[in-house]
Design brief:
The chain is built from 6 helices and 5 strands; from the N terminus they run αβαβαβαβαβα.
Length: 135
């Protein structure tokens, strides 16, 4: 009887550990931040930080945040291009007014990107706050 009880407890414990237990998965994060907070992120030199401008190539060419890479939200291949990016590095994402970047950040969260910060109000608020652009 004692052996049977021990075996039942062991099986129940293993089953509970397999079904529940501690979940170590990181919940994808998407956060809209102010121009000041975005500048802090951009200037932090975080390991692997990608500054992602999701405006059109023409908008990007007219001026962008230093170090930004362009990925056109309006391109048919936008989602597939996102899928090809590393999901475990931090992203600072922006557009002109915050509309496209918020949509892009939501897609990134859906795709499992671990750390996405979106510039609320887009490059418009960046410029209004007096931060520089290049290009």
């Amino acid at each position: 009887m004692t052996r049977r009880f021990f075996a039942l407890v062991l099986v129940a414990s293993l089953g509970a550990a397999a079904c529940g237990g501690t979940d170590t998965a990181v919940e994808p994060r998407f956060e809209t931040v102010t121009a000041s907070a975005f500048a802090d992120i951009v200037n932090s030199a975080a390991a692997g930080l990608v500054i992602l401008d999701v405006r059109t190539p023409d908008e990007f060419g007219a001026g962008h945040i230093a170090g930004a890479v362009n990925l056109d939200f309006e391109a048919e291949s936008f989602r597939s291009q996102l899928e090809g990016l590393a999901k475990d590095v931090p992203y600072a994402i922006y557009c002109r007014s915050g509309n496209r970047s918020a949509q892009a950040a939501a897609i990134m969260q859906e795709l499992g990107f671990s750390d996405v910060r979106e510039l609320g109000g887009g490059i418009i608020t960046w410029l209004e706050a007096g931060y520089p652009i290049e290009g």
